[in-house]
Structures are given as structure tokens and as C-alpha cells.
Known about the structure:
The chain has about 260 residues and is an alpha+beta fold. Among the domains are: about 85-175; about 180-260. The protein contains 4 helices and 5 strands; from the N terminus they run H-H-H-E-E-E-E-E-H. It has helices at about 5-135, 140-155, 160-175, 235-245, and strands spanning about 180-190, 195-200, 205-210, 215-220, 225-230. The chain has a 5-stranded antiparallel sheet, covered by helices on one side. Helix 1 (about 5-135) crosses helix 2 (about 140-155), helix 1 (about 5-135) crosses helix 3 (about 160-175) and helix 2 packs antiparallel against helix 3. The longest helix has about 130 residues, at about 5-135.
Amino acid sequence: MSTIADVLFGRRSVRLTVITIAIAFLTAGLAQAADIETAIAEERQGNAKSVQSQGRINTIDDQTDDMAGEYRSTIDQIESLRVYNSQLAKLVASQEEELASLDHQIANVTVIGREVTPLMLRMVDGLDQFIQLDVPMLGKERSERIIGLRELMDRADVEDSEKYRRIMEAYQIENEYGRTIEVYQDTLNMDGQERTLDFLRIGRISLLYQTLDGDEVGAWDQGAHEWVKLGSEYRDSIRRGIRIARKQLAPDMIRVPVSAPEDSQ
């Protein structure tokens, strides 16, 4: 039979057991809670590392895109440079040909000068001779033009091209005389006296004069190479011709003497 002490001791054992079990459960719960916190912390740390890794991946991806863009840009520049170099090579070849041509021209410039200069001198002499044989119109102007050309030919500071241009210009002026009408004043020695007269030039076919008072008229006789007085029947025609040349009258037919052409032998 159990005694009271046994019962008491039995109840105490039960309490201790219950307490022990409760402590065990509490300890187990605390351990489990610690494991959960650890797991959560590890997960958070893993997530943070994943975010960092994704950031590095994004940075590397951006850098890769930038490098790819730079690569494509470099390829485009290389292609542009290739095309440019090809065109530049053609330009250099063309310039080399031009330089070779210039070298050839420079080498021949002395020879050309030796050939052109005598030609231009002969042209000036020929023009001077032509003026001497032509009707004596605008004598001072034409004489000064020849003197100017001869002085031009002796100048070393003037290019041959400019000398040739001036000579051709003089020839063109002489050519214009043959198809224009003109009136001008000049002096003429008449009976040992210098007199100022109005001269009417009709191309090269007729060179006439009229005194300032209009009383006397005359013409150049190319065959006799002298001035001759004309009859009064020519006064009105010469007077009207002078007014036409001065644009004071409309162009009209006038009666003037013309030297007969010489027969060729």
C-alpha cells in the first residue's frame, strides 16, 4: 500500500516531468525560431546578393551595348576612310599628271617665248606698215597706238600673253574702222598753214573734210596720195554726212567721191 509520502513524491515527479517536457518543448521552439530567423537572414542576404549580381549583369550588359555601338561606329569610319582613301588616290594621280604637264610646259616656256616674240614684233611692224599705206585718218591716235605697242614689247614686266592681247586689240580696232562712220576734228597743213577741220570718215572708202565755216570741202585721193578740194556740189552731202555721224540726223544716202580701186597686176 502506498503511503502518503509515495503519493507526494509521485506527484512531484509528475510535475518535474511536465516541467521538463515543457522546457524541452520551449527549448525546441526557441531553436526552431532561431533556425527560422537564420534562414530568413540568409534569404535576405541571398536576395541582396542577387540584386547586386543583377546590377553587375545590367552594368556589363550596358557596357556590352556601348562596346557594340563603338564597334559598329568604328566599322563605319573604317569604310568611310577606305572610300575616302580610294578617292584621294585618284586625286593624287590626277595631280601628278597635272604636275608632269606643268613641268613640260615650264621646260618649253623658253622655246615658246623665242618663237612668239618674233611673231609679235612682225605683227606690230605689219600693222605700222598698213597704217602708213592706209588713208591718213586719225593719224595721231593710230601713231600713238603703234608707239605704245613697241614700248610694250620692250617691257620685261609684262607677260607675253598680255602683249599678244594688246596687239590683237589694235588689229581689231583697225578692222572696226572699215565698217563704221565717224567724224572728228584734226589739223591739216593747207597752203603752208595749219588749219583745224572737221573730218568725215566713211569706213575706208572715203575720207572727207570740211572747214569749220562750211565753205570749203575736200577729200583724200588714195591713188594720188594727196588731198584735193571738191566742188560746191558736195557741200550739202558732206554737211549732212557729218550730222549723221554725230547722230544729229537719221542715216540717209549721201553723195561723196570714192577713189576707184587700183587694178591688180
